[in-house]
Amino acid sequence: MKDRNMEIYAMTARELCPESLTERMALLAASGLNGILLREKDLPEAEYVKLARSGAAVCRRRGIDFGIHSRPAVARRLDLAWLHLSWTGFLALAAQKRTEMGEFARVGVSVHSVAEAARAAAWGADYLLAGHVFPTASKPGRAGRGVDFLRTVSGAAAAPVYAIGGLEADNIGAVAASGVRGVFLMSSLMRAAAPGEQIAALKAKATESEAGQ
Fold it and tell me: Which pTM value belongs to this model?
């Protein structure tokens, strides 16, 4: 990530928010993020679409990106350019000869191994989301894959790599030095009372790490 600003995105998890997700997305959109990815896989489509409309509107007003997770039909319906896929979702799309990938300006894929990263990049993913890097409450009892994993994926994949999982100020420097383009945060940004301060602190730590290289 040398000579680039740290990119920071929020991935939503409404059950962690102290307020409604609509209110949380408005707060996050004003906090210095690069964008928000709407996850919420368990929601019925009608409820998901309602949240997507409000999230897209607030992000548009703030001039940041808004993405749809795992629901290409919703992204198409709302004319949204950013689609993120799970690894299994990506495989399903690839089996359809990638007919839907060309409909979106930005398609990202979650990967959990170097082999997955190489395959996703070869099949045209615009970016890779690698993790989980450190232990995280969203995946209890499962060890993180570590910074060496990030470094290997970033060195091997012909697509920008982003990190996710257990990221905080104490470890963001090592993540920034691994070669990733940026990070996605979920739990911490869903709960943060002052997300703007958290994001500023992460960017400062990442910059400090790069300056020391």
Answer: 0.95
